[in-house]
Amino acid sequence: MKLLKTLIFDMDGVLVDSMPYHVEAMQHIFDQMGVYMDRQVIYEREGEKTIDIVRLLLEKARIDKGRFDLEAIVGKYIEEFNVIAALKAFEGMPECLEVLKHRYELAVVSGADKPIVHSVLNNLYPKIFSVIVTGDDIDNGKPAPDPYLKAVEMLAMQKNECIVIENAPVGVQAAKAAGLCCIAVPTYLERQELLQADLVVMDHDLLIDFLLDLRAGTPEACIKECAHSVKL
User: Most-buried pick from 65, 90, 166, 169 (CB within 10 A)?
Assistant: First the structure.
């Protein structure tokens, strides 16, 4: 029987209240391009690699992707994000993870670009995570299982020693496709969009209670036990 040893966190919407800045940065770039952008797509596809989101946004706008240099769009978006972002950690999360790092191995799996991920974590969660996987580190991003499988490999853990914490449908899909237990918090979307997760907690206060209340056991047993003790 494998016991819980690792917690793997998505970044945007779980650790950092950042998605409005991602949306605003992309909106600025699309405005410069003279292309309509459906802002809701970014929230719904949160966790995917940025270049894949750009492709989808152009498809939604019925624009031939061949008209634009997608890598250049991503580069401009990163620059814009770094200019406008005034990021903050969700209240209580840094203190929570300071406690958890003495109990578990902690990792981040994000679909965001490497410069953004490392800048955010270095500023808001320094020396917390032993493994960081970004959208630039894999070929196939969420909802493919590859990002989470890479993290498990880098951690030298077994799948049944890990729990994933997500807030986006594609992230939950990726975690489950990788064969991992997953809990979700509906930061920007409705709860029903995350029901593929093993457990949904309704806000970050409850998420923190859940994480700090984790006990020794298998990931499945930990989730089941804490679900009874935390008001979900």
Answer: 166
